Amino acid sequence: MGSSLKILPVIMSGGSGTRLWPLSTEARPKQFHALASDLTMIQDTALRFGADDRVDFLSPLIVCNLRHGTLVRDQLRALDVSPAAIVLEPFGRNTASVAVIAAAWAAEHAPGAIVLLLPADHVVLDGDGFRGAVGHAIAAAADHIVTFGIEPTGPETGYGYIQSGEPLYEGAFAVARFVEKPSRAVAEAYLQDGGYSWNAGIFLYRPEVFLGQARTFCPKVVDAALRALKEAAHDGPFLTLEETAFAACPSEPIDTAVMEKTDTAAVVPCSVGWADVGSWSELWRQGPLDAQENFLRGDAILLDTNSSLIWADGPIVSTIGITDLIVIATGDHVLVLPKHRAQDVKKIVDELKRRAAP
Amino acid sequence: MGSSLKILPVIMSGGSGTRLWPLSTEARPKQFHALASDLTMIQDTALRFGADDRVDFLSPLIVCNLRHGTLVRDQLRALDVSPAAIVLEPFGRNTASVAVIAAAWAAEHAPGAIVLLLPADHVVLDGDGFRGAVGHAIAAAADHIVTFGIEPTGPETGYGYIQSGEPLYEGAFAVARFVEKPSRAVAEAYLQDGGYSWNAGIFLYRPEVFLGQARTFCPKVVDAALRALKEAAHDGPFLTLEETAFAACPSEPIDTAVMEKTDTAAVVPCSVGWADVGSWSELWRQGPLDAQENFLRGDAILLDTNSSLIWADGPIVSTIGITDLIVIATGDHVLVLPKHRAQDVKKIVDELKRRAAP
Fold it and tell me: What is the pLDDT along chain A (358 residues), one digit of tens a residue?
């Protein structure tokens, strides 16, 4: 059944990734860096939709911030990937608006295609497994908005969880409920229970199914997003959303705007080597690690150094006698902090903004 | 008596200071950096010999490596200090040779002057107190080689100690013995005893007294050093020691070559805010420290950071949640290590040399 249907990958590249500063910056957020492989994250994401017996992928649609349009074009061109179009947002309006725009664009330019909406900045080590999961999800997508649940590898407290309900199709379940980032004890109970998966923010839906639900649960998002798309300016592969209309769009994530309200939500649990890599400590966990459990990128000399992440992007980094530390060096900035403080990197970014303010 | 005699300061600037890498390098060792004040260490040293009622200082003689001649000239010119001459060593031969060359140069070009031999890379916070100590030492220098002993401020194990013997003149004692870097327990006993001071490597002597002792205890050093000086090439302020003659000179410190053997050694204990600043942890101890006990130089953002030394020479350094750490950033290198490992910086320098070797 799957092979006759076309899938339109829509890559959301609007994130700013401040917790990966100083590598990730507003000018060049993390999806445009080679974090987990030799390719940038958006390049790895684009390459995930190669030829496959089970799924027929169209050229991807990209949605990104206005200022990153040429970065996207150049990084995909380097792989000989031609996007169907690059939608430019004058500013971010979260993911519900992107999901609406993706549905409307697909309905007009790829009639009959199913939308696969996913972030540009996630790691998926098992691309073949991921394509297989998409193939499995196609049946459920006939009348459901499908989300892919990542089978937990540990009691993570940094992700939202999805509880699977009754079976719908082979490998697909109704969503019993979405739960916010849990405490450690609750996460351990979920892991024990087995019926929970991580919310990876990856969705598969038919445009008319999604737009129908969105019109019911977030009509203002639909109205504003569709108007911004209709009045968009065209320039080669670029489609710039109309600013005034888009400014009126409520800024809401697809999860709260639609998924937690609709009764058409389905989940396809899968195990595909997924990681969010939202912070330096997550990148360290993701690995690869050397014999001393260090994550090393760039030119460095490590003596008596253990369980640390060393990122040398420019200067040579030398360390002696450190453990559990993150050391990031670019030409302009050096950042040093213990792994357990990785969430606080944003404070440095905020402080730098304060200093730069007039 | 002191005011009628001239003092020739001879500044030894041949050190390489590898433990202060990556700031201190072979191309620009620590004495040419502003470590403890806004001036470089050799500039601070040269300014120590200003006009004084008690002591009549001549323009200083500088002894440095061949490659640092123009650095010395330029850094002193910036202060309007005109050195008597700049003696260039084609390679280092330790301090006994420098002491001999200083004595011979003084005997020829500043007849009747007393030599004050001292390193370019030491901190002396109390310049007035130091000049006073020199004034006190002049009487003893009539027939002794005087060394200045620093009154200990703690049981340091990183310095050699001098035990004072019988009084010779006001404030000057015969040297009972020189002792190598002691253990902690021994250093504490010395501090308790009170008759010990740190060996700062600063000497005051009449040329004929020193040369007489050196001819007795290290005649090969005297022969080679005098020949290298006699056959030196002159070029403006520069005097380049003759290479073949100097190569034949034994490489010995003045301490073992002369001071530990002669019975003309005297010590003038003093308390002048002296510090060697031989390593990053010593620089931290030297201060100044902020309210969180951090030593900060350059542009940095410190959150929850305590008892650390942050040196930002180029990149902006940001730290979160660290304690007792040294973080040094130059444009080319970043170094991170705990303060108690400061002695191991040399291992990084050695490793870099190994890598650079063909």
Answer: 444 689 999 999 998 878 999 999 999 999 999 998 899 999 999 999 987 888 999 999 999 999 999 999 999 999 999 999 999 999 999 999 999 999 999 999 999 999 999 999 999 999 999 999 999 999 999 999 999 999 999 998 889 999 999 999 999 999 999 999 999 999 999 999 999 999 999 999 999 999 999 999 999 999 999 999 999 999 999 999 999 999 999 999 999 999 999 999 999 999 999 998 889 999 999 889 999 999 999 999 999 999 999 999 999 999 999 999 999 999 999 999 999 999 999 999 999 999 988 7
Contact at CB, B329 and A327, closer than 8 angstroms: no
How far is B278 from B48, CA to CA, in rounded Å?
20
Which residue ranges make up each domain of chain A?
A: 2-275, 280-356
Nearest partner of A184 among A158, A163, A164, A162, judged by Cα: A158
**DSSP letters of B276-341?**
---SHHHHHHHS---TTS-EEEEEEEEES-BS-EEEEEEEEEEEES-BSEEEEE-SSEEEEEEGGG
B233 is written with which tokens? Answer: 């090439």
Judge whether A239 and A88 are in contact, CB under 8 Å.
Answer: yes
Phi and psi at B28, nearest 5°, equal: -150, 85
What does residue A97 show for φ and ψ, rounded to 5 degrees? -65, -40
Secondary structure (3-state) at A249:
coil
Q: Is the dihedral angle over the CA atoms B238, B242, B247, B253 positive or is it negative?
A: negative
Among the listed residues B111, B92, B100, B84, the one whose alpha carbon sits nearest the alpha carbon of residue B230: B100
List phi, psi (to 5°) of A111: -55, 135
Residue A159 to residue A197: CA distance in whole angstroms? 10
Q: Record the tokens describing residue B320, joined without a space.
A: 């979160």
Contact B335 A345 (CB under 8 A): no
CA dist B154 and B161 (Å) reads: 12
A329 at B interface, C-beta within 8 A: yes
Q: Does B316 touch chain A (CB under 8 A)?
A: yes
B111 shares contact with chain A (CB less than 8 Å): no
Spatial CA neighbour of A254 closest among A190, A223, A211: A211
Q: What's the CA gap between A148 and A163, in Å, rounded?
A: 12
Per CB-CB distance under 8 Å, the chain A contacts of B338 are: 320-322
Residue B190 distance to chain A (closest CA, Å) = 32
Q: What CATH code would you report for B2-275?
A: 3.90.550.10
The pairing of strands A325-329 and B61-65 is: unpaired
Contact of B97 with B14, CB cutoff 8 Å: no
- CB contact (8 A) between residue A333 and residue B352: no
- Shortest Cα distance, chain A CAs vs residue B282, angstroms: 17
Q: Tell me whether residues B337 and A321 touch, CB distance under 8 A.
A: yes
Which candidate, A337, A335, A305, A310, places its Cα nearest to that of A323?
A: A305
Query: What does DSSP assign to residue B182?
Result: P
Q: What is the rounded distance in angstroms from the CA atom of residue B23 to the CA atom of residue B16?
A: 11
The whole-angstrom separation of Cα A54 and Cα A127 is: 13
> The whole model's pTM is what?
0.86
Sign of the Cα torsion A206, A211, A212, A216 reads: positive
Do B334 and A337 lie within an 8 Å CB cutoff? no
Backbone angles phi, psi at B54, to 5 degrees: -90, -30
d(CA A7, CA B297) in angstroms, rounded, equals 56
Cα separation, B240 vs B246, in Å, equals 10
In order, the DSSP letters of A114-141 are EEEEEETT-EES-HHHHHHHHHHHTTGG
List chain B residues with CB under 8 Å of A340.
Answer: 321
Distance (Å) of CA B163 to CA B149, B178, B181, B256, B272: 9, 6, 13, 16, 18
